[in-house]
Input
Amino acid sequence: MVSSLRVGSLSWERRQAAKAAGLVLALVAMEHSLQMSAWILPQSQSVRPQAVGRGDGVALRVTSHEQNVPLLGLGAVGLLASFALRPRNQPEKRKRHRLHAVEGDAELGDVEKVFKEAYEAEAQRCELIRAQLQKALSEKLGGEGGVTISIEGAEGFAPDKPGGKSTWREAFEATKIKIKTIEDQLAAFQKENQPSAPQVVVEDIPQVTPPATPSTQQQIPGVDNQAALQQLEKLAETIEDQALLRLIVNPIVQPDPQKTNILPAAQTVRDLIGADQFSIRKSDEWNRVYVFTGSLAAGKRPKDALAVLEQRLSERGLATSTEISIQKVKDSETEQLLVMVLKEDLPDQGEFQWYNWLLFAVALVFTLVTVNMVTFSVTTGNMEEMAKTMSPDQIAVLAQKNLPTAVSLFATVAASELARRVAAASYGVKMAPPIFVPVVPFFPSAGVLGAVSRKQSTPPDENANIGISAAASLAGIVVSLAFVAIGFAQGPDPDKFVNLNFNILPLVFKLILKPLLGTPSATIQPDQFADPVILAFASNGWQIGGLVGLVVTALNLLPIGKLDGGIMARGALGGTPASIAGFLAVLLILLGSSNGNESGALYVLFGIFAVVVQGGTEPPPKDGISEPDGVLKAVGVLLVTTGIFLSIPPGLMPNL
Output
């Protein structure tokens, strides 16, 4: 593109474009102003035909869509723009326009003048397209013989030409039809003379042997982008687990250009599998993913077949770079999917890098700070006045009284993560270090929302998924209840400096604790005819920290995303029941977020954590066929139900 630089004036190309646009606006506006008596056209009007202006060999197409616009005013603006921006550096053209005005334009109405200008622009465009088609046909048919093809243009449509149209409007419309005809002929000619692509026969199961070096990409013969998409769509119809579908699709649809490894040859993998373990009926093969549809050998359990296949992979030196799993086929009791992927395509399974360790350290430090700022712990006095009157020794005593809250809260979350890693080790699953999630200081809420824990190796089955999450949740419940018991045994703070913010607790907590906490230390009575609303009870740091830890543990048991509750719900309930439980959990978060007090802030923050940070699902286990153990399923269902029950927001009974 060539651009002109001028100071104080527009370039020729831009003036021509503006002129064309002005002509279009004026044409459409004035035509309709004569046809309609209303100042504003209704939105139901159809789209007007396109008017095309041409400036210095570059076509500009403007389509006018009629909307609620004052068209007469628009037409006036268009006319002013078109004539004000006419080129002032072409005296011959100005002279020709003056002659036209003297000889014939004086007899034309305003509409015809505009149609004449539009016709001239269209005629120039028609001439260029006609020249292209003539040249193409002459080269094709004439060759070196000198035969020339001539195609009629639009110059004969002008009213001032013999045999032309009676008006400039008819000439303009006829020129548009002529342009469309020539464009269609040119497009058809170009299509007919394009070299055709070679025909390739696609086998049902391509036998592909990749190059020996893994740095070059293996290609499946006869599979283009559209064919691969259709192949994926057919495969997706057999998969119910969305996590499995993402695991298969992502390396195909969104490949990482930095990852150049490919799977071994498909035939090599089929030979390695062997009919003694898995009988293959159909094969879907890509560079980084193999999906074999078939059935396990008679009498073979998925766990046993996987053990044999992993041993064979290890013997071939493929165990460190590839992973194999057996998954369910939708609506089939007899067939399974055997999926082979590259380990580098599995999410969250890379090494813990230095920046991960840095994030871990920063999050830990912030968490140790924010657990000291829990709004579940309040004082009944005015803190500003207390700060003015309290001595340094009294302030130190107050801080010492609140320290157990931070200790017990952090200990609860840390115990959950420790139990998670112990359970994961028992199932042979590697875990990344936890990333604690502190609450922004001084924001009304708990001091920490939990921790983000990612598995760095694939669990063997659903028993492992449920068992790991159940261990973490049970540890959090047990430790937090232990601190609550210590707090009850110690009794409330005799100085009443430390008080439990009763108003922020979830509903079930309030119902259980109200009879046990004694006389309120602070109340409010917005309605003189109703009972006063309890704001706080005298308490102590151990009790408050234990209760906050229990609240955080209960919220993490909600069946959402990658929270412990979400993992256990999908493993123990599966499919539709897990989705219904997840919908109920999201509804509780929304109800809690609507509260106008500090409890609303707690639910808002946790909702963001659950949906944004812990959203989505984990990859499926290696054995996606076997049902989890009955006891583990019962434990998982019980824990998820407990989490939903304990997370009911207090707004449902605001006067409690």
